[in-house]
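Per your request, structure below.
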């Protein structure tokens, strides 16, 4: 059947909070409920099936809540399995005032990473600071 010839049918009302992306109708036509889930900044309210991963990462980062040194954490896995999403969710839920997220694929130099961290923590920057100046502000 030609997609252009299909008539529009109003989807059935949904009376519960959804954390899924699509609702499937009987004729296999998908309706996108929330296109925001595909944004880089989207973080869901809850994670399903990731409790073990969240507990393990939270345990590793736990000392940071009391201003103690944390150990290095290496998170690995195939692309698209949710590594970044789990980390972003955990930082939002457990460290909302202590952490910022920096995408190091887009901020590829130490200068850009430090600049992004300072900007996200509310530090006023003119944009003309050297990396040394940014490091001094970061460490203070």
């Amino acid at each position: 059947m030609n997609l252009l010839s299909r008539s529009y049918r109003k989807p059935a009302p949904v009376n519960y909070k959804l954390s899924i992306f699509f609702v499937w109708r009987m004729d296999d036509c998908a309706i996108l409920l929330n296109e925001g889930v595909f944004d880089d900044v989207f973080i869901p309210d809850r994670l399903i099936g990731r409790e073990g991963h969240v507990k393990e990462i939270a345990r590793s980062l736990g000392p940071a809540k009391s201003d103690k040194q944390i150990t290095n954490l290496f998170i690995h896995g195939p692309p698209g399995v949710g590594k970044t999403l789990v980390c972003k969710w955990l930082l939002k839920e457990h460290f909302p005032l202590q952490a910022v997220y920096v995408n190091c694929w887009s901020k590829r130099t130490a200068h850009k990473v430090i600049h992004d961290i300072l900007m996200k923590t509310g530090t006023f920057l003119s944009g003309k600071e050297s990396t040394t100046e940014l490091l001094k502000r970061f460490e203070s």
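The CA atoms of residues 22 and 32 lie 5 Å apart.

Regards,
D.
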